[in-house]
Write a structure and sequence with these properties.
It is a single chain. This protein is an alpha/beta fold. It folds into 2 domains: 12-48 and 290-383, 3-Layer(aba) Sandwich (Rossmann fold); 57-278, Alpha-Beta Complex (Glycerate kinase, domain 2), CATH 3.90.1510. Helix 1 crosses helix 15. Helix 12 (313-324) links the parallel strand 11 (296-304) and strand 12 (327-335). It has helices spanning 25-39, 57-63, 96-100, 118-129, 149-154, 210-214, 222-241, 247-250, 258-269, 277-285, 287-292, 313-324, 339-344, 360-365, 367-383, and strands spanning 12-14, 45-47, 67-74, 80-88, 91-95, 134-138, 158-160, 179-181, 193-198, 273-276, 296-304, 327-335, 349-352.
């Protein structure tokens, strides 16, 4: 091939997120690959499972070649849990939900006022212990609304009440906060690049803040939301009064409200920089060189809906592919986006499992075989033209 010539040989890159409740991102890639190869066995297929910083982020990093590390930390209810992070070449990918996520709550049990992010701080500290000097901190799927106070306490901060005793765990306990001291934070944080990776750009408090928007997902009734919102506002005010730089301003910053306000804790206490989760993860996972080798990208997630367009993995993948002029199609469990919305996101066409099996329960139970059938259709539509 001469310089400047473009190869017309098809080459597929599968860069999809998980189908929540059915398939991991790696399993999605396996199933799509199997279906494609039944129809086009000679077409090269490369897989790069992706995530947007929420649950599944560590798994995506491991699938991309990072090493999985497990550690015992404090769960959201205060009990020990096993959490994992991923490490490669001095970069650690940490998923707060591994330590402080809803998956650690017994079914039907919520603790909106008392759940703590202390274990997330322990997870960050474990990554620092390995010598990691870049921490990609993916936040989402939290059981907590404590503004990251628990995380900061695990890293050396002190949050005291009027009697100079530690405030109780959880967002509700912050109502008793009298003084905050961040001077004891782990000294290694100052020499570490910390990236807050999230698809959420909410502020800490207010109508669009963490308690109001995401509290109900964690069991918060209206009274809880009001208590938590006031407690987090008080928390930010005490940090400001304690001389923490930009404490008031950062409460309004995009991402401060992520994962029950742990985004605020990362911004104000850890000096983290906020970036959209999918952008960070595409960089970390090596998406650009994989995209350069592809003529077709297949992305997707469990539900392609309005939320997808606001920073979810398929939108990020499609935007990067469109910038390079590479065609993108998507697979999903259910589809609620119009053709125009898909086109606006850079997705030429979406293929939904519900097109093959309209019953949602059966669709989830048989997601793997159904996805292989969709992949066969994609191969007929795009690789046999």
């Amino acid at each position: 091939m001469t310089d400047g010539a473009v190869s017309t040989t098809p080459r597929v890159l599968i860069a999809a997120d998980k189908f929540k409740g059915s398939l991991t991102a790696a399993q999605v890639a396996e199933r799509v690959t199997a279906g494609l190869r039944r129809v086009a066995p000679g077409v090269p297929v490369e897989t790069l499972p992706v995530a947007d910083g929420g649950d599944g982020t560590v798994a995506a990093a491991v699938a991309a070649g990072f090493t999985r590390h497990e550690v015992r930390v404090t769960g959201p209810l205060g009990e020990p849990v096993t959490a994992a992070y991923a490490l490669r070449d001095g970069t650690a990918v940490i998923e707060m939900a591994e330590a402080s996520g809803l998956q650690h709550l017994p079914e039907g049990v919520f603790a909106p006022r008392t759940a703590t992010t202390y274990g997330s701080g322990e997870l960050l500290r474990a990554a620092l212990d390995t010598g990691a000097r870049t921490l990609v901190f993916g936040v989402g799927g939290s059981a907590t609304t404590d503004g990251g106070a628990g995380m900061l306490a695990a890293l050396g901060a002190r949050f005291l009440d009027a009697a100079s005793a530690p405030v109780p765990p959880g967002g509700g306990g912050l109502a008793e906060l009298a003084t905050a001291d961040l001077s004891g934070l782990d000294a290694r944080l100052a020499g570490t690049e910390i990236v807050l990776a999230s698809d959420v750009d909410n502020p800490l408090t207010g109508p669009q803040g963490a308690p109001a928007v995401y509290g109900p997902q964690k069991g918060a009734v209206p009274e809880d939301v009001a208590v938590l919102d006031a407690a987090l506002a008080h928390y930010a005010a005490v940090l400001a009064a304690s001389g923490v730089p930009e404490a008031a301003e950062l409460a309004l910053a995009p991402g401060a409200g992520a994962a029950g306000g742990i985004g605020y804790g990362a911004l104000v206490g850890l000096g983290a920089s906020f970036r959209p989760g999918i952008e960070v993860m595409l960089d970390v996972l090596g998406f650009a060189p994989a995209l350069a080798r592809a003529t077709l990208v297949i992305t997707g997630e469990g539900s392609l809906d309005e939320q997808t367009l606001h920073g979810k993995a398929p939108a990020g993948v499609a935007a990067a592919a469109r910038a390079r002029g590479t065609e993108t199609v998507a697979v999903c469990g259910r589809l609620t986006l119009s053709e125009a919305a898909l086109a606006g996101a850079g997705i030429r066409r979406a293929y939904a499992l519900t097109d093959l099996e309209p019953d949602p329960a059966r669709c989830m139970a048989e997601a793997g075989p159904l996805l292989e059938r969709l992949a066969e259709t994609i191969a007929h539509d795009t690789l046999s033209r």
